[in-house]
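Quick illustration, no need to memorize.
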Amino acid sequence: MSIPSEDQRFGLARRVTLPRPLPLDGGGVLTPVEIGYETYGTLNADGSNAILITHALTGDQHVASVHPITGKPGWWTRMVGPGRPIDPARHFIVCANVIGSCMGSSGPATIDPATGTPWAMRFPVITLRDMVRAQAMLLDHLGVGTLQAVIGGSMGGMQVLEWAATFPDRVRSVVVIASAARHSAQNIAFHEVGRQAIMADPNWQGGCYYGTGDTPAAGLAVARMAAHITYLSEAGLTEKFGRRLQARDAKSFGFDADFQVESYLRHQGISFVERFDANSYLYITRAMDYFDLAEEHGGRLANAFQGTRTRFCVVSFDTDWLYPTAESRMIVHALNAAGAAVSFVELSSPFGHDAFLLDVPELNRVVDGFIRADES
């Protein structure tokens, strides 16, 4: 295996315009296709060490390097980096911003070449399978044929499942974390609350707010606050905040953030609007809601994996009520019915759905062991 250079070891941020249009599930094509991505490590001589990491709804390609807007560390430095389960000394790591997003990939904020103005709501409706096809085109550009693994949590896990179903011959193993094969009515309902909050903001302007100096920041902040509640657990919120009040004049009651949990949620909303685009939130949440892997394969989930040689690892968390363990078991049952090689574990954590992003050493051990089994 070749030794990565210092810049390759810690990540290279890039943006590329792919050489061909992207056919879309909804009909028509997207052109041009721009992808923002990062790589870490070096592809070895036989091309066998490439790992694709797929990000969640509000994630991006900055998986293990400093975010250019917030200045914060990458969102998965607990999993990716020197000495971590996904290690640039052993792996060629790729993480791409999904199409429809706002961190370098084609989305509502990018320029429509036909008009010379941002796409806004003229941007075509996209699906998770469209996102995965765009990632496959990026890997073609990078000279990556077969992936050692595709790994992701939440919406990233949905992309992992789509990779296994759409490109089974390109994936040796996959890790699906805290995810599902389709959205429940409850999932769709929470997303709709967020979308309505954005569209009810007068500054949304039908999606044509680019360049006006006014963005639907208030609506997007509320959408983030509502969604963030679903990423946590009741036990975690109670332990962290309980019913504790802010340190303030006890007589100063009203509609300010009296409770610590209120202040926390407001901070989450305000900080989110600094790095994310409201229209992208609309498009990506809709793509997640449309996702139904069984429906894509004749109404039977096992059909998506029939005859696959890919190895699967499925992980859930006991306090995740957004994508509860029952959803992971449904995936495992389908894989068993398809005769696939699958490992499954439910991990205990107080952090709810966000556990896959937080300090859960057991998750690192599971992922590390699963990846190393392919390397032995």
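Confidence is low (pLDDT under 50) at residues 1-10.
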